[in-house]
Amino acid sequence: MNLPIPNSRRFSLLLALLSALVVASCARAGTVATVVSSATAPPGAGVGALGALPNLRETVAHVSPAVVAVDVNVTSLDFFLRPVEQVAAGSGVIIRPDGYVVTNDHVIAGASSIHVALTDRRVFEARVVGRDSRSDLAVLKIDETDLPYLTFASKDAVDVGDWVLALGNALGLEGGPTVTFGIISALGRTVRTAAGLTLTDLMQTDAAINEGNSGGPLVNLRGDIVGINTTILAEAQGIGFAINSDTVTRFTNDLIEFGRVRRPLIGLQGRTLNPAVAEQFQLKVGSGVLVTGVADGPADSAGIKPRDVILRFGGAAVTSWDQFLGLLWARRPGEKVTLEVLRGAENLQIVVTLAERPPEGG
After folding, report:
1. Does domain 155-258 sit in CATH 2.40.10.10?
2. Which fold has domain 264-356?
């Protein structure tokens, strides 16, 4: 005679059966998840474990004091040509203890005065050390020492899928920087901004970047800067962009030392080579940069000719004209760079000594 099973026991047996089935299926797939306690996991722990997230508290505590609000006063004219004072807000990050701050150029464009607010509520008037509209970077200086600051990670240490945090003065909200969390979604992006700028070699992230975040840092789990947040795609969700750390380091060093970015000049024009272009010009390679023109300058002196195909720049494979420009801007005037060039059926190694591009307006 079968005795009826009480409802509570039926539920317990059913739950045990379901648990056994889940564990068995996970074991067959080799994907048993491990949950890491946020109370005990060190920063970055659990990144490789399915279902686990890193503990961000220590990273945020380390980074936040170096993130600043950049408040800008801009004087414009109203309909009756009367001066009107307007206030705008952005973000920045302290990169040296003696008061050097990196932000976006568009944050401070047209400013009549600039103030930098720290998380400890101290506010300093800032002066502009240097600006570079083409890269959307600027360096400010405040008169203070022993400030908290962040260091830069190498671009080569960053890869798609890495965890990152974006910090900044989102929407001008009071109470310290806003922190958002995501991953590096792509590398080497070229973006044309609403202001008409073409920015190359950007990092793409899905960490939320809101109005006011511009100029704030994108950091890894160690708290090192991997990029400076600069723009978003307004028509998309979860697509923001940051200027990569190598570009920021290279350009800010120039801004601090010279007050401007010293850009290299190579003296050639080109276009991205794809299979359609290769067929049009009867070329035997389907990717690289096709040289369309050579001016009097370093490329001409080194022997570069129109219809040459640039395959490598300083050892790095060249895949597009925008990428070529990103590789070029990362170099300094006076550097020698080896180009691997296809001319007809012949592969050539040509060394070009880069000159200095005249300053804008010069």
Report:
1. yes
2. Pdz3 Domain (2.30.42)
120 is catalytic: no
Q: Supply the DSSP string of 166-195, one letter for each residue.
A: EEE-GGG-SSS-EEEEEEEEEEEEEEE-TT
CATH topology identical between 62-141 and 264-356: no
Phi-psi region of 172 (alpha: psi -120 to 50; beta: other; left: phi over 0): left
pLDDT in tens, 316-350: 999 999 889 989 988 999 999 999 999 988 999 99
Phi first, then psi, for residue 255 (nearest 5°) are -60, -40
Tokens of 346: 């012949």
Q: Residue 214 catalytic?
A: yes
Where does residue 276 fall: left (phi above 0), alpha (psi -120 to 50 degrees), or beta otherwise?
A: alpha
Q: Average per-residue pLDDT in the chain?
A: 84
Is the pTM higher than 0.85?
A: no
Is 115 a residue of the active site?
no
Domain boundaries, the chain: 62-141, 155-258, 264-356
Two tokens, residue 205: 């992230």
Percent of the chain whose predicted confidence (pLDDT) is above 90: 61
Closest CA to 260 of 106, 130, 357: 130
Tokens 């408040």 -> residue: 71
Q: What's the rounded Cα separation, in Å, for the pair 238 and 225?
A: 20
CA-based diameter of the chain, in Å?
102
- The superfamily CATH assigns to domain 62-141 is Trypsin-like serine proteases (2.40.10.10)
To 5 degrees, how large is the angle CA 209–CA 237–CA 183?
A: 60
Of 134, 90, 86, nearest to 108 by C-alpha is: 90
| Choice among 91, 106, 201, 206 that is catalytic | 106
Active-site residue identified among 91, 135, 185, 214: 214
> Among residues 71, 105, 132, 136, which one is catalytic?
136
pLDDT, tens only, 95-127: 999 999 999 999 999 898 999 999 999 999 999
